[in-house]
Predict the structure.
Amino acid sequence: MTWFTEALYADPSHEGYAQTFYVSRELVRRRTDFQELVIFETPHHGRVLALDGVIQATEKDEFVYHEMLAHVPLFALGSAKRVLIVGGGDGGILREVLRHPVEQVRLVEIDGAVVELCREHLPFLSAGAFDDPRARVIIGDGIRFVAESMETFDLIVVDSTDPAGPGEGLFTEAFYGDCKKRLAPGGLVVTQNGVPHFQPQELARSGRRLKPHFADVGCYLAVVPTYVGGFMALGWATDDVGLRRLTEADLAPRFARAGFETRYYSPAVHAAAFALPPFIAALL
Ligand code: SAM
């Protein structure tokens, strides 16, 4: 394989547009029980993970997505102790969540091969997080977990694939309603919600399906170059309307107390991430 061309997104409106990577070495290609998994090396983006032809993470810019999907909710909440990650089998979100003084993290990943092969070929993503005594990895369907578990969480991070294949059910109202049942009072759900430039209806649909269950539904933005199309939308749902209104001044002492370095997240970026251009705000 000399070139990898990213398959069209689940949304057919993506027709006729793709991104292509030069492949210096293919490390693994496997048809798992759930999806086609490929990990390959590139000259400019380092190692890359793709599932069913869609880019999931690249060594060069994974820090953007994983920092923003973990630190914005955790610094907003300020004292989250119990976190659920749905999906996230590559370990990037788990790595960032564990930098906070959380007590327990459950990671529910449907495809054990993702965890196994990312630990082997993309160890920088989890960076030892899977061995942290606070982390518990459950190989199973996140839909079933939130429907059947009796546990409650301060934060639920839905780090899913796009709404196709095993990830499709993670964008339904039933799933969002079950997430609400799993949340402690004042808790927060954040979601991977696509690139509005190409997948506007994905964000609009999630907004419609979250609103019956949460008082405050919105999104915040990050620019992840290899999630092609400009801004990436990260869904936000909570009953605590104040969480979204924290200012840089509110967040700066929390970030300073945390005492760790980041490459994309900062209190200023956190506050600015909720400033939505009208074409995105209109979707919610
Ligand atoms: N950062 C990536 C993105 O933004 O597209 C997502 C990373 S992670 C690799 C996505 C994970 O969601 C995959 O490992 C996939 O197996 C998992 N997944 C999809 N559907 C799931 C489900 N119903 N329950 C649990 N995990 C699921």
